[in-house]
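Tokenised fold entry reproduced for absentees:

. . .
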Amino acid sequence: EVSTDDPEMAFCTLANRKELNPEEDSVHHCLYQFTRNETLTETNKLLCDVCTQRHCGPKNNISEKKCVYTNAKKQMLISLAPPILTLHLKRFQQAGFNLQKVNRHIKFPEVIDLAPFCTAKCKNVAEGNTKVLYSLYGVVEHSGTMRSGHYTAYVKMRAVNNHLSDLVLRGQSQASETEPVKGQWFHISDTQVQPVSVSKVLSSQAYLLFYERLL
């Protein structure tokens, strides 16, 4: 969503990003990199309609050669915090002419705060809130190579989250919890289901992460 009504707020977030200092090989670092402020210069300059019209006059008199391009800043931030947050980790990289699977462990928390990655005017966050918290409830893990492998899942069995239901059905919630949703974790592989500890879950090589909104 492009907003020009308040340019001063365009690059402001709900929480201070400068205090993050995210750890390498972590989901926080991935989100920080994905939402970083970028400068568009040289061949990446932005076509500026205002500058072009100021230079050439009305739009119907503008040819492609007369278009004015200018340096600009770009940043992607979350403008609407979802009830369910799904994070898909890119677990492949280019190795010569082939794709290679990335097997290293990416750290992810049981509770994650999206506030440093949300716009200051995030639509469904109450005014004054500086936290947007999510609790982990599911992980998909892949073992094997790019050509073959096996998918397994970790799922938390937990009580009904009434605050999440309010958010899904009515777009609002009065939630105040800041701790992980209580429940028992299970590892599922085909027809095999067994209980596991949260430490086992957090040490997995996540491919997909599923979080539910707390606050």
Observations:
- The mean pLDDT is 85.
- The two ends are 23 Å apart (CA to CA).
- The chain has four helices and 13 strands.
- Residues 162-170 form the longest helix (9 residues).
